């Protein structure tokens, strides 16, 4: 398996369908998913929501400092997509297939089995920048369509993508990326954005999709090649 670095300076409308650049069509997934998710979030079609809540949720305290890994999720995802797009197109395609499969399964669940959580605190023990930001984030982000957690699924997708690149395929980087993913996963429950119940089905979806997208990849044997 070879790393594939594409010279995007050669990109033109007349060669977009070529083998060199047609992987860029995968990027269309993001606006399409965004529109579909927005449609589900707007709740245009009346639905009956199922609350997700368990005793462990009540034992986990709200901690505003988990806002840091929670918001780092956006950097993590964008970083994985951009890095592989620029430096490892083969892994980019595998990771995008992973996003498409896992997000499609999750969206189907949201449509068939709508969920919401009632965990967000009404009062806060402290008053600081993190609490100020979270209050506004709560107002922006709905508490519906939470199970399985897209935050968890997305972080695993980015982790697997980085793992299967030549540069980040080392034990040290594997541990760093795994810790980042674990912190993001924990942040969803400490931020009271998700119930603990939302995590296991997300992990199951990740496990199901992984062999379909990455099983033929052998990152340790990759060699770097530039497409020109």
Question: In words, what does this structure look like?
Answer:
- The chain is mainly alpha-helical.
- It has helices at residues 29-42, 55-59, 67-87, 89-112, 129-140, 150-163, 171-190, 199-214; strands at residues 2-6, 50-51, 115-116, 223-227.
- It has one domain.
- It has eight helices and four strands, in the order βαβαααβααααβ.
- The chain has a two-stranded parallel sheet. Strands 2-3 form a two-stranded parallel sheet.
- The longest helix has 24 residues, at 89-112.
- Mean pLDDT is 90; it is low at 217-228.
Task: Produce the secondary structure layout.
Blueprint: E1 2-6, H1 29-42, E2 50-51, H2 55-59, H3 67-87, H4 89-112, E3 115-116, H5 129-140, H6 150-163, H7 171-190, H8 199-214, E4 223-227
Parallel strand pairs: 1-4, 2-3
Q: Span between N and C termini? A: 18 Å
Q: Decide which structural class fits the backbone.
A: mainly alpha
In total, how many domains does the architecture comprise? 1
Tell me the radius of gyration.
19 Å
Tally of DSSP helical segments: 8
Strand order of the largest sheet: 1-4
What fraction of residues sit in β-strands? 5-15%
Main beta sheet: strand number and arrangement? 2 strands, parallel
Q: For the residues shown, what is the average pLDDT?
A: 90
Q: Describe the global form.
A: globular
Tell me roughly what share of residues is in helical segments: 55-70%
Please provide the count of β strands: 4
**Uncertain parts:** 217-228
Sequence of secondary-structure elements = EHEHHHEHHHHE
């Amino acid at each position: 398996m070879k790393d594939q670095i594409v010279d995007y300076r050669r990109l033109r409308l007349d060669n977009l369908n070529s083998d060199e650049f047609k992987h860029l069509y995968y990027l269309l997934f993001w606006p399409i998913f965004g529109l579909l998710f927005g449609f589900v979030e707007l709740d245009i079609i009346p639905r009956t929501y199922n609350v997700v809540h368990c005793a462990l949720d009540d034992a986990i305290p709200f901690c505003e400092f988990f806002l840091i890994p929670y918001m780092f999720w956006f950097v993590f995802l964008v970083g994985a997509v951009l890095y592989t797009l620029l430096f490892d197109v083969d892994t980019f395609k595998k990771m995008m297939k992973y996003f498409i499969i896992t997000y499609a399964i999750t969206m189907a669940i949201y449509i068939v089995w709508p969920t919401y959580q009632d965990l967000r605190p009404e009062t806060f023990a402290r008053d600081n920048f993190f609490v100020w930001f979270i209050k506004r984030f709560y107002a922006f982000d709905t508490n519906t369509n939470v199970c399985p957690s897209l935050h968890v699924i997305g972080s695993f997708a980015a982790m697997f993508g980085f793992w299967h690149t030549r540069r980040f395929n080392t034990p040290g980087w594997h541990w760093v990326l795994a810790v980042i993913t674990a912190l993001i996963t924990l942040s969803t429950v400490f931020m009271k954005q998700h119930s603990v119940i939302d995590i296991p089905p997300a992990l199951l979806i990740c496990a199901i999709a992984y062999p379909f997208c990455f099983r033929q990849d052998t990152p340790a044997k990759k060699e770097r090649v530039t497409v020109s």
